[in-house]
Write a structure and sequence with these properties.
- With 154 residues, the chain is mainly α.
- The protein has a single domain (7-128), classed as Globin-like (Orthogonal Bundle).
- The chain is 57% helix and 0% strand.
- The chain contains seven helices and no strands.
- The protein has helices at residues 7-11, 14-29, 44-57, 63-68, 70-78, 85-101, 108-128.
Amino acid sequence: MTGHPTLYEWAGGSEVFHRMINAFYDRVEQDELLSVFFPGGVHREHRRNVATWWIEVFGGPSAYTEELGGYERMLHKHLDLGITEEQRFRFASLMTLAADDADMPNDPEFRSALVAYLEWGTRLALGNSQMDAEVIRHAPVPRWGWGEAPPYEP
């Protein structure tokens, strides 16, 4: 036990993740590369479900696994989308801006963990979205942590 708060706790809990996801999808709806995945806009249920995923990944309650279908559901949402590298990068970039919009912590340790997850997750989604992808069909929802840089606490 390290005694460090989870990334979820450090960020400020559920509300900040909902703000980030809403800010992100507000940007996506206006983006020429990503809006194609959401004809008609990004609905409230989708936003809530994605926030629930992020909350679990960052160390909050396991509601995505317990109530929404876990990893298998997230995988299913990305199969055969044909995400391009440019779309992957845009996703990560817009999510980073949305973290700013949501006033998430801006300390380097937290942002390092956030960007690490964005890079890992978007690259996995990119691979899983290809028509010929050999995917891992059953896995737990990842639980992201501080990695190499725990939070700086003077």
